[in-house]
Fold this protein.
Amino acid sequence: MAEAVRNTAEGLDAGLVEAALDAARAGDAARVEALLEPVHPADVADLLEQVSETDRDALLAMGSAVIDGEVLSEISDAIREEVLDALPDDVVADALRELDSDDLVDIVEDLEAEDQGRLLGAMDAADRVAVEQALAWPEHSAGRLMQRELVVAPEHWTVGEAIDFLRKAEHLPDQFYHVILVDPRMSPVGYVTLGRVLSAARGVKLKAITEDSFRTVAATDEEADVAYIFNQYHLISCPVVDGSGRLVGVITIDDAMTVLDEEHEEDMLRMAGVGGESSIQDGVIETIKGRIPWLFINLITANVSALVIGQFAGTIGQIVVLAALMPIIASMGGIAGTQSLTIAVRALATRDLTVSNAMRVVRREAAVGAINGLSFAAIMGLAGWLVLGVPMLGVVLAMAMMINLCVAALAGILVPLAMDRLGFDPALASGTFVMTVTDVVGFFVFLGLATVMLL
Amino acid sequence: MAEAVRNTAEGLDAGLVEAALDAARAGDAARVEALLEPVHPADVADLLEQVSETDRDALLAMGSAVIDGEVLSEISDAIREEVLDALPDDVVADALRELDSDDLVDIVEDLEAEDQGRLLGAMDAADRVAVEQALAWPEHSAGRLMQRELVVAPEHWTVGEAIDFLRKAEHLPDQFYHVILVDPRMSPVGYVTLGRVLSAARGVKLKAITEDSFRTVAATDEEADVAYIFNQYHLISCPVVDGSGRLVGVITIDDAMTVLDEEHEEDMLRMAGVGGESSIQDGVIETIKGRIPWLFINLITANVSALVIGQFAGTIGQIVVLAALMPIIASMGGIAGTQSLTIAVRALATRDLTVSNAMRVVRREAAVGAINGLSFAAIMGLAGWLVLGVPMLGVVLAMAMMINLCVAALAGILVPLAMDRLGFDPALASGTFVMTVTDVVGFFVFLGLATVMLL
């Protein structure tokens, strides 16, 4: 399988990984450090995630030769507690000192209380205050996502004043793309891109060269909504304000990109009936915990289907071939339902399915269901007649296929719309509901028609 | 349904939409323009996508009151040809003039040859050349994605020289975040963030303040790989080089974010058996075209299951309750297989499933399958015994459940790994293969065991 699966991460070749592991196993911290020095922290984090637990422990025993702030920030939530527990306090403290407040919050917020306390204790006082203030905002809010390091200027400043200020500033954020203009009450009133600051003459007023795209988000806004705004309006950074309109932080596009990525992942996993936070790094127990609930729900809905089939035991006893044919009708409905469901869940997530077009989309799905239903009804009808030699069985197959594909198309759009209306995540349970509908309707219609028309 | 579905886009309230549509229907272009002027182009594009075809035509008849370059660039591929066909040449030409080369390429590349010719004809000569050069790169490559507007400086320049150059420059790109340093052969050798340029003293050499994160991509690289690099290494912009290492363009993070978004969508849609480019705006015919292939493949695989069941007609004829119970075993396998498949497809897409951990993940899936199998085997075994009153039926149910859940967990990981190894997109067909395996195995094991143990 060696070449099959993509080669680990870009910056990690198999030779380097082996050499680093050998050095770590031999306890040669200097060599490990030399080997990993040119590797990007994101790739070091991937390395730690992908090796076995024993090898991970050997690497972590190398302390700061392997772990710095960036690596700690990049590492998957699934193994972060394990990594932190394996590291001595001074290595953790050194690593934390390198990070901006938004990265610190990201590391601390998902930890258990005990680990949180340990990390807060290891931080500088200023960082600790910043993190504690951020944690006061709700989970998954803009307040948790933002960085507090800001570059602001009074709204009356000129380009020259801004440049002089920046040259004199002692500590600037690692990343900033705008100078935010604030009024005397610290409310943001506009921003100027650094490109504009650089290309304008020194005497130009900042206010004269602000960007049209300027908008702010509230610290209590959901991070998913913030990600949507970045994607929709192509923002690079966005100031965050508190309840009284004061500037409290800024969110940059790389954080928004991470949120967008996580939201997608959650939708995809939820649709498949796996916990939205599941990951390839989870252990066996966590994996089972994430999967058992939906298997259990499916067991119940599958038993409903079995009950429906049981009602027609007499019919099946007389015409056994029905038992072989009925899963075809159910499974075609399942596929058609999943198809229309997926389009709907995705369109709800990207806000392309709205009040203005919901009815048109429902009508389109109905039309698609009817036409696909007719096509496959024709195929199955002919097959039933010609292959099985019973014309009436062909008619039953065709009618059941037609009805189930129409029901599937409509359930695929109406169930997620209804979930969304009721305030649930349409990705969460729509799949199970839609499959239950197509199974139950499929079995009932097919066996029911067979009972009426063939007996 | 009015409040259920999320309110169109942020910038569009229902009142504004109605007012704009009324004005458009009345042919009042001035009023439409006044109403839409404060609306973000991305929201105007959403409006055009979400209204009915008749309303869209009324809006498009307003010409430049509705359409500018940004709107044209934001509009969904699904309706772009229709929009372009409805617009007079001068409106299109004015709109195109506002856009950077990467946006022009994005608009032109998916059009049919005739429309492409019309748009290229409407462009300024310089834009046309830029677009034609971009189209010479392969589809979905970095060369298609990049913008050609660049901010470069010789590697020996100082901060002051760079600032003076930028102040004098006549035309700067709409977005730029770095000054790219090039050697005399135009090979990029590093870049400096604008924040650093602004905060450093005029005499500082640019070479002394370049970023560690610097890396380049080749114009022929896949855009999906470029998006991965941006996400993995938190890049903001990335220079693009041709085969001889010369700088030919730059990709910015907003374009990478769009690609990431599209890749996710493709994976999600492909897993559901819908064409990867399907959209909520597609017409009935396109929708059917996207869905028929997988329905057809499913029809074939469902018939394989039916053949398997058919082999046991004799058994079912004697014990009809088996027909009601067999879909439970198959459907539980389907869910378990989809769960493990989704985690695997996602991990392959994010490159978290690699050579280093593939065997460990396979072992974990086997363990999860065995434990879930045992749990649900116990439940079904007891149910078979207590509810149905036939102890041996309980044993058959339990054994079939156990085997099918193990097979499901393994198929869910091994099928996508194999697809990836063979160079296919694991999202594409894995679902169908895994479901076929769990259906066939489920029916075969359950009915086979029943034949051996109950007859």
Summary: The two ends of chain B are 55 Å apart (CA to CA).
